[in-house]
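Loading example: each entry is read as four labelled lines plus one structure line.
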Amino acid sequence: MTPQRELVFRAFFELGDHVTVDELYDKVKEKDKSVGYSTVWRNLKLICKVGLAEEVNIGDGVTRYDRVTQVPHGHFFCVECKSLTEFSVDQIVGVLAQSANDHKFVPEAFKIEIRGLCQQCQNKKTSLNTKEEVRD
Amino acid sequence: MTPQRELVFRAFFELGDHVTVDELYDKVKEKDKSVGYSTVWRNLKLICKVGLAEEVNIGDGVTRYDRVTQVPHGHFFCVECKSLTEFSVDQIVGVLAQSANDHKFVPEAFKIEIRGLCQQCQNKKTSLNTKEEVRD
DNA sequence: AAGCTAAATGAAAACGATTTTCAATTTCAA
DNA sequence: TTGAAATTGAAAATCGTTTTCATTTAGCTT
């Protein structure tokens, strides 16, 4: 366990979910400017490999990383402000597991994402559109 | 409507789901070698923009494209052979819509992915591991 | 049909996140 | 302490995606 590796691990678990490599890199640099980007990247990959993190891909070209917790969750992704928030998927996972079973598929992970508008962005939109389009 | 555009549109709908830009490019080239990659790419984006296709991102660095159909579906992604197959998510979408509603989130799309092993890859694995590891 | 403008095309380059290379350094077990 | 193996940092390579730009084309308007 090198000091750099420890820094990366600690930083990752200090940060919340949905961390990008860049964000983690910045966080690590707060403690030690000399740590290289590739070291952060490699150790983040290592965290994934040992099962402590998993990649989250919302299709914006940047991979984010979630801590793997005991509680499975889905993601709300706001297409407007790009924010990512979590929600519980307890029951849903049961249904999905059943689905997988029906198809003889052995599930390892469930990725559930709802894209749309978060509450804030809904408000922004409606406040801008003062004149409503009522008809088609 | 340029002939290139028509070629791209036709090719996209002739191919099945989960098409990559490269695959579409190859398909288009079968009809007309002179069509450029960027033309294929731009028109595929256009197909998305008008709502006839949507991006599918399984986190392997390549964007795939699905035709938008009336029937919502989830994806089984085999982490071994990288195959992508579809399954029905009728009931699940209902639960997710409710979830979104509870969180004041306005859903536009639901992405449901189950990662794991397809039946074929399960068989391969078990046939290879003749000597089983029984204990931790 | 000719002329015109905006849109579309193809080739190449730019972009940007990710991944690899490589020489130097560090860890850790013997 | 010593040597092999692992790790690091900097730089470059990769690779899918996106943009640029000069040229061509589509499709209106007359």
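The first strand of chain B starts at residue 19 and ends at 20.
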